[in-house]
Write a structure and sequence with these properties.
The protein has 275 residues and is of the alpha/beta class. It contains eleven helices and eight strands. The chain has an eight-stranded parallel barrel, surrounded by eight helices. α6 (134-147) links the parallel β5 (126-131) and β6 (154-158). It is globular. Bound molecules: erythose-4-phosphate (E4P). Erythose-4-phosphate binds at residues 11, 32, 34, 129, 157, 159, 161-162, 193-194, 213.
Length: 275
């Protein structure tokens, strides 16, 4: 909508921020939420029930959806290492009924992929989150091909900033997944997540990434700056991996320490306010 081909999403669970971003940019292509952002937005210290928490999430997602009815709004399921595929699937079905323009966010763990396969096969729109390497991206592509999906029905969210945090050049993962998906002619759209600065944003523009999701603070900085240019960072490059594309998605090792850590953090944040 705004810059070359990259669609701009807001990374926030707060509808007041949606309105501010629309005001600044003249529109938004979508919004992403996650359990940590939902809790941050609740801004309260007293405990509440899970039902109240989900009610709060639903109300805010519905407000966001009204502000961007033609965009996409990502809603994330709750999952920890013990959550079953059946439980994740049931949450996806229920959250998908909240609004007409949902993408359901599934963490990249085996139970969630199993649930997502069923959900996508039935026409559901999905966003795979907590993606930190190319193998995970291959498993997601092969899953999507096995169940069938149209372009735009499925997103994958590689997390740039959290790779930078451990000294790796997070933006390389975006380029590597993009190259692999071009070779595979994948219908999966790549959504740059965990974006921490304008340098990350400019990189997404430079490679013509499909989508990027930005916290309001970055949108403000972008709005105030005339020109941004990408300058390479002093981080360890992530090389492109030549993987065997013929593997079944169920046979690909999708484990990654940052996925495990991220899942735990989302679960802890979500539970921190529950009675
Ligand atoms: C969005 O989909 C992600 O949940 C978000 O960008 C994560 O960002 P963080 O790594 O800054 O928490």
């Amino acid at each position: 909508m705004f810059h070359k081909k990259t669609k701009i999403f807001l990374d926030s669970a707060n509808p007041a921020e949606t309105a501010q971003a629309i005001e600044m940019l003249g529109g938004l292509d979508g919004q992403t939420t996650n359990p940590s952002l939902v809790v941050k937005n609740l801004n309260q210290s007293s405990k509440i029930s899970e039902e109240e928490m989900l009610g709060f999430y639903k109300t805010n997602v519905q407000k966001i959806s009204k502000l961007i009815p033609n965009g996409s709004v990502s809603i994330e399921v709750y999952a920890d290492q013990r959550t079953s595929a059946k439980e994740i699937y049931e949450q996806a079905i229920s959250m998908n009924e909240w609004i007409d323009n949902a993408h359901i966010k599934f963490p990249t763990i085996p139970a969630a992929l199993e649930a997502a396969a069923k959900f996508i096969k039935q026409g559901g729109r999905a966003n795979f989150t907590l993606v930190f390497n190319q193998k995970q991206a291959l498993a997601i592509h092969n899953l999507v091909i096995s169940v069938g999906a149209t372009k735009g029905q499925v997103f994958i969210s590689p997390f740039v900033g959290r790779l930078d945090d451990i000294g790796l050049k997070g933006v390389d993962l975006l380029a590597n997944v993009q190259k692999m998906y071009q070779q595979l002619q994948s219908p999966v759209e790549i959504l740059g997540a965990s974006i921490r600065n304008l340098n990350h944003l400019q990189y997404c523009f430079d490679i013509g990434l499909d989508i990027v999701t930005l916290p309001l603070s970055i949108i403000k900085e972008w709005h105030q700056s005339q020109n941004i240019t990408y300058s390479p960072q002093n981080l360890t490059p992530i090389g492109f991996e030549n993987l065997d594309y013929t593997q079944k998605w169920q046979d690909i090792d999708i484990s990654h320490e940052l996925t495990t850590k991220g899942l735990l953090k989302f679960a802890q944040d979500w539970k921190s306010l529950l009675e």
